[in-house]
Amino acid sequence: VQLVESGGGLVQAGDSLRLSCAASPGTLNINVMGWYRQAPGKQRELVALIGTAVDNPRYGDSVKGRFTIARDSAKNTVTLQMNSLKPEDTAVYYCHAIIQRPEGDYDSSWGQGTQVTVSS
Q1: Among candidates 106, 111, 113, which has minimal Cα distance to 28?
Q2: Would you say residue 81 has pLDDT above 80?
Q3: Would you give the end-to-end CA distance of the chain in angstroms?
Q4: How far is the C-alpha of 67 from the C-alpha of 60, rounded, in Å?
Q5: Residues 112, 40 contacting (CB under 8 angstroms)
Q6: Each residue's pLDDT tens digit, 108-117
Q7: Which residues lie below 8 Å from residue 98, measured CB to CB, with a gap of 6+?
Q8: Is-contact 93 114, C-beta < 8 A?
Q9: How many CB atoms neighbour CB 97 within 10 A?
Q10: How far apart are CA 120 and CA 115, in angstroms?
Q11: In 2, 4, 37, 73, which residue has its Cα 20 to 30 A from 114's Cα atom?
C-alpha cells in the first residue's frame, strides 16, 4: 500500500496547517490510519490516529485540543487539521496505516513524510 502525504510547509507560531494522506486507490480493509512525527534527535511519536469507528480518535498529549484528525473511509484518506501551531510542533510528519490482509494478519505502511516547520 502506498501512502502519499501533502500539505506540509513553513508557518509562524499560531498559524494553522492541514495535512492530507491518501492510500493507493482500491486498498481494502484499512483498519487504522494516523499521523506520527519525528523531530531531529527525537524518537517518532504518535500525533493522532483513527480507526474504523471514526467517533473515537486518539491524540498525543502534546496536541490534544489543537489538532483534529478526520478520515474518509470511502476515499481512503486521512487529514490532520493543525491549529495554534507551536515551534515545538516542528517535525517530519508521517502518515501511517494498518491494513488487514485476506490471510487475517496485518500490514503496516508508512508515507514518505512531509516537513512541518513552525517559526517563532
Answers
A1: 106
A2: yes
A3: 37
A4: 9
A5: no
A6: 999 999 999 9
A7: 30, 31, 32, 33, 106, 107, 108, 109
A8: yes
A9: 24
A10: 16
A11: 73
